[in-house]
Structures are given as structure tokens and as C-alpha cells.
Design a protein that fits this description.
With 252 residues, the chain is of the alpha+beta class. It has one domain: Creatine Amidinohydrolase, CATH 3.90.230. The chain is built from 4 helices and 17 strands. It has a 5-stranded antiparallel β-sheet with strand order 10-9-11-16-17. Helix 1 packs across helix 2 and helix 3 packs antiparallel against helix 4. The radius of gyration is 17 Å and the shape is globular.
Amino acid sequence: MNILSAKEIENIKKCGRVLKAALDKVALAVAPGVTASQLNQIAEDELHRLGAVPSFKNYFIPGGGTYPSSLCVSINSEVVHGLPTENKVLKEGDIVSLDLGAIFLGVCTDMAVTKPVGRIDPDLERLLAATKHALDLGIKEVKKGNRIGDISHAVQTYIETMGFSVVRDLVGHGIGTKPHTDPQIPNYGQAGRGPIIQNGMALAIEPMATNGSYQVNSDPDGWTIRTADGSYAAHFEHTVVIDNGKTFVVTA
């Protein structure tokens, strides 16, 4: 279990502020005609300017290989891990998930937002709003003594109440001195189940929802995960830490 020291908690708060500043700058650049490659360059340049290292670039997953970029750019039916290629061009009406991780002062943070590209369909506006609010509800369950299932249940209940589906094959995770640690944090499940949330834990909570089925497939590129039915997906993420019994959203 990832229990951080007092110094690591102090540093993860600083790392969160750096990551938020970088991702905010990327999000401001979202517009029709902008390429995913351009967004990736902004993310990488801004992290380096702030003294941080992108945690996704060259990240190795057994059986998956090495991720080649700093930013994940996932458009419309792409849920997560979309490659930020030059030929991926944003257009009016798209929604785009921007997922970025940082290493700073020896610790890691992770954050994602989904942005509209120009004017979008009202149903997509509802999808984005519901997924973002589900993240807020999940964070409210991050309390010392609660269980991971309390987060999962809060996210699932709200998203499904709003008429959307929760992606089940992908999860949030612990975070700290490494980008991914235990515990896994599903976005569905029963309250009162799973590991107990403890003081010093850092968690990356990331609801993923679709306006169709929750089933997903992998693209031939080995990275991009997209909805099996072509429905659109939204993804929001924050890193939180429990410090002296209080919950801090370090990427807010």
C-alpha cells in the first residue's frame, strides 16, 4: 500500500500544483484545427519549464511496450491512452480527453480533463458534466477509515442515474513515488468493500463514462482504448492525498 512520508506528502502537493499549471495551459490551446501533437508539445514544454518530468513518456507496461509521448489525447470514442499524433486534428463538435502525469521532487501526480472543441451536442455537455461531478462525489468519499468501494459506488451510482455508462475495464489507482501503485480504484462497485483508506495514502481517482455501452476495445496501435460501440467517452481525474486525516486535492 502506498503510504507517503510527511515530506513526500508536502512534495506531492507541490507536484500537483505544477501539473495543474501545465494541463491548464494545454486545455487553453484546445480549438478546431489544433493537432494532438501540438497539444503534446505544449504539455512537455510546460512541464520542463516548471522543472518537472512527464511521467507518461517512455513509461513501460509489460506486454504493451513503451508509451512514446508526454500527453494522452483521446478524442470522441477514444476513452484513454490516445496517441497524440500529428494527423489527429481537433474539429468543431469533438470532445477531447487530456491526460497528463508529472514527476517533481521525487513524487508523481496524475490529472485528466475532457474539453469540448467549440460547440458540442447538448447530450455531450451532459456527459462531461456528469463525469466531472462523479469525480467530485468520488473525492468526497476519500476519508480516513472509508473503503475504496465507497469511492467506486459513489461514481457508479451517479453516472448511471444520469443515464450514462461507467467504463469497467479501466480503473483509478494509487500514486506516489511511482505513477501507478496499489490500490486499484474501480469506478463501479459496492460501498463498504475493498481496502481501507489510510492516512498518508495518495490516490488518482478517474471516472470514465460513455453515452453508450461500457464495453471497450484496444486499437491496433496497442495503446488507444475506445468504446466498442463507437459511443463518446468522457474522462476526468484528480490526485488526492490524506494528510493528518484531511483530504487534499493536490491537482485542483
